[in-house]
From TrEMBL:
This is DegV family protein. Keywords: Lipid-binding. PROSITE patterns: DEGV. InterPro entries: DegV (IPR003797), DegV_C (IPR043168), DegV_domain_contain (IPR050270). SUPFAM superfamilies: DAK1/DegV-like (SSF82549). The lineage of its organism: Bacteria, Bacillati, Bacillota, Bacilli, Bacillales. The keyword Protease does not apply.
Amino acid sequence: MAKKPIAWIVDSTAYIPKELQENPDFFSIPLNIHFGEDQYIDGIDLTAEELYTKIRNADQFPKTSQPSAGEFGEKYKIIAEDYEEAFAVHLSSKMSGTLDSSMGGAEIAGFPITFVDSLQLSYGITGLLQHGMEMHKNGATVAEIKVELDQMVGSCNTYILMGNLEQLYKGGRMSAAQFYLGSLLKVKPIVHINASGELEPIAKVRSEKRAMQYLIDKVIEAHKNGIHKIYLMQGNVIEQANQLKKLIQEQVPGMEVEIGEMSSVLAVHAGEGTLAVLWYEK
């Protein structure tokens, strides 16, 4: 039987909407979550909701890891049985070794894969892959897709309202003093992903209402620059996400807002209660 021309690959930190889930040529390679000696596969052994419950009750804070090059290689050998080549978009190489492991896996499998370092997370990965798939559908070559997506890298705007301060403290991403003061003053830290693919603090806002308005103001600015659709990722706070969507659409009439859930791996690092808005510049 003839092989299909191309498979499309991401890792499980990507936002995966229904249309990708239902695409037979799409593959998501899951990362791992560790609670002490116990290992779980992101999205398979552990849902995001189950993760939050475990974090609240666990003595040890979880850690995350990417599959080894050998594990990637085994997955790619299976995909190679049905496809001539693949195109993979991964989370920022500045935040994880996933891209390196994936490239190593392709070499082990002897499977031709074209790679793009998204320098992003979540929809920042998805948006690139979907654009590449659309280009391929319209007749573009893999080389042409690679050039265009590399040019798009760095043009995704991602603003993240970090969630549970206690989770950030337990995870070692906040000192005891920062946690105490932040809780006392009800500070809401906001970070973005810079053009180099690194998380960068940009604001500390008092109160959730002001923090949400900070995100809305960024969306208003984007709308003035011709953006008509954004993505809103949430960490087990769907009610707040729906409220933020309502506020955005009240202040930016006509703005389309798609809400999605953060993956379990991202939930470990960002914290329960996290909200993020993302879009690609035109």
